[in-house]
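Structure first, sequence second, as always.
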């Protein structure tokens, strides 16, 4: 009798519907944390599970949730996650696991229209995955009923504590029945987690996946030592076949600055950090997931726990502050049997910190030389040759053949092709900039744009400061910068129209002589 209704997932017996769902998700066998926690949870224990990021903690609680709850349209399981992105991601995964049992899972988070959430809640869901703030909102409005919650899960609990959600958790728990099963999952186990567990969990069982398994074996770990990290990063991006990349910076400002510096050099990237509105974060994540954005630049907090497939490179633009954070970051790549690369940039004085991480994590981070200009050229040559042969293979370029045939009468075919390549490589970048440059009349010389900077003699700014800073930041020749007029509290500077956009984007909120400035096109008469 029993044999008909259950299917094995490794050594764990599951009902057919759940087993079919996880087979469809491509899981062949349980991960270590799943192997150890699922049977305990199915048996009704409170479980505290610790395992590094990317080890399958979501399904470790998601599978037993789907096994233990019924089709009754009441909220029977409540999962708390620290961020909106995680709420969405966890909810999606639970939705897949509960698919054949027709269990409805709803993510609840701030920033989404509350009316819509209320309507869905009314229609009846069995599992809610929410961020603390928005959940409290619903509790206060009396639009969520938690009396039937039998399982409460605190996911990414360390993160939740880092983000200061302790009081919110406390308030939420007052509205969840005391008679319940409580699960807590975390990538790290600081003492605060123990305090939390002691307070809210009954006779709990703790499962720890040991630190020896901390590193991701499929990830190549290398480091570059350089004083100019930006230059180093660009060389890496130019010389390697990079797919989807996450670059980590220590601070939000670091993230924004790097997005701007990369954009000035023609690389398209986008930022993910706590200062962005939630709609902005959603948009960035969607672009990244959909493959419309290759380079995501993030802070640790914003990216932790996020599960994105096919990350080819994790780049620590700033060295992680502790070994745990290193493991979290590089856990983003080398997933599901695919090989990934983890690159760390250090400045000479950070060498000791790197060695400390290496020791704590029990891993080897190998030193490499930065790609040389010759390496980059070689790589670009490869790319161009590839693109050309593919274009020839695809055919249908008759329009252009005519142009070449005309010119071939007077020019050498090799020169023609090479000139076309140059135009293709360098030409359209500049044109794109010119197209965007709509500054109207700024009172500048023809071909130039006059820019206004809100700093001047009072800030002891001199013409050479302006030239040097703009040239360095925007990566242009100082000699192309035009007339500079410095007044007491402000300055006018003229730059060629073709670089004005770039100068504006890298200089705004940047500093000149340590003074933070605003810069904008001047208003001409
Ligand atoms: P964590 O919460 O520990 O950081 P996740 O639950 O986000 O990890 O899981 C990481 C990835 O591994 C997800 O894409 C998930 O679907 C996948 N995964 C989880 N369990 C398994 C498994 N048993 N087999 C294969 N892939 C799995
Ligand atoms: Mg997780």
């Amino acid at each position: 009798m029993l044999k008909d209704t259950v299917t094995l997932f490794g050594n764990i017996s599951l009902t057919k519907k759940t087993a079919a769902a996880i087979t469809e998700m491509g899981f062949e066998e349980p991960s270590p944390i799943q192997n150890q926690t699922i049977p305990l949870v199915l048996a009704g224990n409170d479980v505290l599970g610790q395992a590094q990021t990317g080890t399958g903690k979501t399904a470790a609680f998601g599978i037993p949730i789907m096994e233990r709850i019924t089709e009754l349209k009441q909220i029977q399981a409540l999962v708390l996650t620290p961020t909106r992105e995680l709420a969405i991601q966890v909810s999606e995964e639970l939705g897949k696991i509960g698919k054949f049992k027709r269990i409805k899972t709803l993510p609840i988070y701030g920033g989404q229209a509350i009316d819509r959430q209320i309507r869905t809640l009314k229609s009846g869901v069995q599992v809610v995955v929410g961020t603390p703030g928005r959940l409290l909102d619903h509790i206060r409005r009396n639009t969520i009923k938690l009396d039937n919650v039998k399982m409460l899960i605190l996911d990414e609990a360390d993160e939740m504590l880092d983000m200061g959600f302790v009081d919110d958790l406390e308030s939420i728990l007052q509205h969840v029945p005391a008679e319940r099963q409580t699960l807590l999952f975390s990538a790290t186990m600081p003492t605060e987690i123990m305090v939390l567990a002691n307070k809210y969990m009954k006779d709990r069982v703790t499962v720890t996946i040991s630190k020896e398994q901390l590193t991701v074996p499929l990830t190549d770990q290398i480091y570059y030592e350089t004083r100019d990290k930006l230059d180093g990063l660009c060389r890496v991006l130019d010389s390697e076949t990079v797919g989807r990349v996450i670059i980590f910076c220590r601070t939000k400002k670091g993230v924004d600055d790097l997005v701007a510096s990369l954009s000035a050099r023609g690389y398209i990237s986008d930022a993910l950090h706590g200062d962005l509105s939630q709609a902005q974060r959603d948009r960035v994540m969607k672009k990244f997931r959909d493959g419309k954005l290759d380079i995501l630049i993030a802070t640790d907090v914003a990216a932790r726990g996020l599960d994105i497939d096919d990350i080819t490179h994790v780049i620590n633009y700033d060295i992680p502050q502790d070994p745990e954070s290193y493991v979290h970051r590089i856990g983003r790549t080398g997933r599901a049997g695919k090989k990934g690369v983890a690159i760390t940039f250090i400045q000479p004085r950070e060498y000791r910190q790197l060695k400390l991480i290496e020791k704590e994590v029990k891993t080897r981070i190998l030193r490499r030389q930065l790609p040389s200009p010759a390496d980059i050229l070689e790589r670009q040559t490869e790319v161009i040759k590839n693109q050309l042969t593919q274009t020839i293979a695809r055919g249908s370029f008759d329009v252009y053949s005519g142009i070449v045939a005309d010119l071939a009468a007077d020019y050498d075919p090799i020169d023609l092709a090479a000139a076309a390549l140059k135009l293709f490589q360098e030409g359209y970048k500049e044109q794109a900039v010119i197209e965007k440059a709509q500054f109207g009349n700024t009172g500048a010389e023809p071909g130039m744009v006059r820019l206004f900077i809100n700093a001047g003699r009072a800030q002891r700014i001199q013409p050479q400061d302006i030239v040097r800073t703009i040239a360095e930041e925007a990566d242009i020749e100082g000699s192309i910068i035009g007339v500079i007029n410095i007044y007491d509290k402000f300055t006018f500077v003229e730059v060629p129209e073709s670089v004005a956009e770039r100068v504006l984007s890298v200089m705004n909120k940047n500093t000149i002589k340590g003074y933070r400035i605003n810069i904008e096109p001047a208003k001409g008469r």
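Margin note: Residues 239 and 373 are 9 Å apart (CA to CA).
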